[in-house]
Description:
Mean pLDDT is about 85; it is low at about 40. Helix 1 runs antiparallel to helix 2 (about 105-130). About 45% of the residues lie in helices and about 30% in strands. Strands 3-2-1-4-5 form a five-stranded antiparallel β-sheet. The protein is of the alpha+beta class.
Amino acid sequence: MIDQIISHNGVVQSVEGEHVRVRILQSSACSGCAAKQMCSSAEAKEKEVDVLTHDAPRFKVGQEVVLDGHLSDGRYAAMIAYGLPLALLIPVLFVVIQLTGSDIQGALWALGTVAVYYIVIFLFFRNHLQRRFSFRIREKS
């Protein structure tokens, strides 16, 4: 399967060292639809993205750029953010309920397990994930 590239147009907001902060317009899938004025589900939001690149000095504030990311990165991020915590939560919930007979204890243990999961991700894998999920920046042609 070929990995698709997702591209966003943006404007450079600041350049500091190897960090380029870019403002992008993140739009929903239907925002390009001709009927979006009559549809309440079309929405777009401005986001700021911090891009780590060795080429940062060549970008200037106000410059139009393109950010490229891989669709597979999004899938991997969703698995880490939602899939794995759910895969932890459900078994812990049922095991603790079976062992204690208490739904409240099961829920507390399950939520505690997910909280510990996110703390471990933050403390030990933050830098790895930041490198893994970085956008590539290029000048708009």
